[in-house]
């Protein structure tokens, strides 16, 4: 099921209001510009008093985002989270700020943090390379479908075929 949140396309996961995916575009004038990501958001029962968990479903190269799982550093969310925020703040303020001003001192991706601190130009090039390779609209749209296929393969013991 899809619904709109202002300018954002939102897909509910299992028709739950506590778990959904949102299409997010990289902020202009950053190396992430032009990128499209599918963001997985899960709201805890204590929401809005407790921050949501946020994850990128297609790859992104950023010090505060785990490259494999796509999880956004919880410390970073919790430092800025307020019960006064609503969901739109995540996509219009929090995520653009996170991409604009990465914090290499609290990394989930050590390689990105080290590159940002030692070789900022190389960091920017690698971010742009990831945007071109992994952050297209097609990659974002396919991000969830691929995971579902893998889950099915895991539960189907008879299937050993591999597409990739």
UniProtKB/TrEMBL annotation:
Spell out the residue ranges making up region: Disordered.
138-164
- Which PROSITE patterns does the protein's record reference? UBC_1 (PS00183), UBC_2 (PS50127)
The record's SUPFAM superfamilies line, in alphabetical order, gives: UBC-like
Q: Which UniProt keywords apply?
A: ATP-binding, Nucleotide-binding, Transferase, Ubl conjugation pathway
- InterPro entries named among the record's database cross-references: UBC, UBQ-conjugating_AS, UBQ-conjugating_enzyme/RWD
Active-site residues, record numbering mapped to chain: 73 (glycyl thioester intermediate)
Its recorded name reads Ubiquitin-conjugating enzyme/RWD-like protein
Q: Which organism is it from?
A: Ephemerocybe angulata
């Amino acid at each position: 099921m899809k619904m709109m949140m202002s300018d954002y396309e939102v897909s509910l996961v299992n028709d739950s209001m506590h778990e959904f995916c949102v299409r997010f575009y990289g902020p202009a004038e950053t190396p992430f510009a032009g990128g499209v990501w599918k963001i997985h958001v899960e709201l805890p029962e204590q929401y809005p008093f407790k921050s949501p968990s946020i994850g990128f479903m297609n790859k992104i190269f950023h010090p505060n985002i785990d490259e494999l799982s796509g999880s956004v550093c919880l410390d970073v969310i919790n430092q800025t989270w307020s019960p006064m925020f609503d969901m739109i703040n995540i996509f219009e303020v929090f995520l653009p700020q996170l991409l604009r001003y990465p914090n290499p001192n609290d990394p989930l991706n050590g390689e990105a943090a080290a590159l940002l601190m030692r070789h900022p130009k190389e960091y920017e090039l690698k971010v742009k390379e990831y945007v071109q390779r992994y952050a297209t609209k097609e990659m974002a749209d396919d991000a969830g479908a691929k995971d579902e296929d893998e889950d099915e393969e895991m539960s189907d013991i008879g299937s050993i075929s591999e597409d990739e």
